[in-house]
Fold:
Amino acid sequence: MSNVVVVGAQWGDEGKGRIVDWLAERADIVARYNGGHNAGHTLVVDGKTYKLALLPSGVVRGKLGLIGNGVAVDPEALLAEIGRMQALGVEVTPQTLRVAETATLVLPIHRAIDAAQEGLRAKPIGTTLRGIGPAYEDKVGRRGLRVCDLGEPELLADKLEQLLRHHNAWFRGLGLEPFALEPMLQGLLALAPRILPFAGPVWHLLDRAHADGRRTVFEGSQAVMLDVDWGSYPFVTSSTTIAAGAATGTGVSPARIGRVLGVSKVYATRVGEGPFPTEQAGGLGELLRERGREFGVNTGRPRRCGWLDAALLRQGVKVAGIDALALTKIDVLDGFEAIDVCVGYELDGQRLDHAPASLAAQRRAVPVYRRFAGWEQPTQGVRSLDRLPAQALALVRGIEEIVGVPVDIVTTGPERDDTIVIRDPFGHPFAG
Ligand code: IMP
Structure:
């Protein structure tokens, strides 16, 4: 087995970046398959913090980074991020980064649409306002611009004109300023020579890499509960976040996906609006936010915090094809007297083992909790299972039992090596 897909198993911000970073050291390639610069992946390496949004996490380790066709690429944001990485001493070149020629472009107009759509909504979604949703709308609406179009000025002008014809009718209808073709076209043509050297057939590179026995980590962005099909629609992102997205979003065969690792915190957070049955709005939520430093990487927004919803996690494991879990931030719970974990719901007098489909029913559903004992001895920095306090180990085993898949990895602090490896997700005995 040569590949691993890393999927967020909650609402994002589970600490996927550092898990991918840990796996990247044991792999050759890191490939992004969904989302765009709405994602925020934080890595701490040798005390240095790297905040990534669009670049695959492996670039920090000098691994080949791939941005698949399923990613929404904002060319300005990509170049700015490459610049930020270079300022931190990380070289990003066409030898270390390839971007799918068929990836959808995110344009300035998409940011304007994102903001205007949020303004029109009676209940805003709380998007990141990066224009990701509108860019995907244009993709499925078959009027999107793609990376390869940057190399064809005439085609680019035609496609842009079509795109503006479509969107400007809407802008005018709302009494908003329409977008002019020429400045947008010139802006894209100016970016093109800096983007095109990175463009290539990512699917083909992956196919050759597989034939050569090279290992790939597929880095999912956002998470199962933000998936456009499986999340709490419409409070979701606009892409396929689950493992199946790795196939559609890079061109790798589903049969070659390998092990699917779901990343979940031992508690829960959510950014933006939408149902969150185990949310703790009071002091407990604040304590988790403060101890877990739960503020958005890119937007700085405070995250909503609550207990782990293992019933939703179990559901996510099934639909996302998750084989095993990485449990993160167990150290945040150090010193808690008791820890609650949601195992199901009570809805209209009935017991459910999964979340109801309708949003109204989700809001009525009352979580049923199983209580675990807390621990006093700190877990921060613990790197082997036998050094975990017995109660922390009981929580890990309890989550395995409730969710029905094994825990491969537990993280105990912000450093990449604050990691307990129970089983190497690449399927090989862990060599240390
Ligand atoms: P969008 O992806 O910007 O359209 O936002 C849609 C929803 O997904 C909002 O609730 C965002 O807060 C959420 N979201 C998008 N990206 C992330 C992420 O990387 N982490 C956590 N939440 C995210």
The chain is about 30% helix and 20% strand. Residues 12-13, 38-40, 125-128, 130, 132-133, 221-222, 226, 235, 237-238, 271-272 surround inosinic acid (CB under 6 Å). The first strand starts at residue 3 and ends at 8.
